[in-house]
Task: structure prediction
Amino acid sequence: MSRLIISMTAMTALLTSLAGCDQPGQTEAQKETKATEQAVNARNQAEQQAQNAQAEADEKIAAARAEFARVREDYLHTKRLDLVTLDTKIMNLESRARTLTGKAKLELDGEISNILTQRDAFVRHMTALDTEVAATWDMGKANLEKEWDALRNDVDHTDH
Result:
């Protein structure tokens, strides 16, 4: 009987120790599953961060484009108003030319013709500036300003 008790105790101890141990590979499988879940979570977080960064960049780009469009339109509006004032001066020159005769009339008509040619070129370039992209805007604007200064100076000098 004592042998039976010893056998039963040994068997119970063996079964208890087997129940407490994982099956071979189960721990490794759990580690692998956990690592895979962590990798998926990290990838999802990275994708979300990239999407957030792209959305933020898109917002900044849209704001910059809107600001550029506003600046361009403000500048061109001012130039159009300046052109109206200049056109009034040109019309005054044309009226004055109609009252002149001889050499004075020929000279003024020639200057007015040159001014109108410059004005037409200025208007073409101003219209082209309306579609100018931000990368070339500064150069286009600077060139238009030079044309404007030359045109205005010619009108002012002819007017006197």
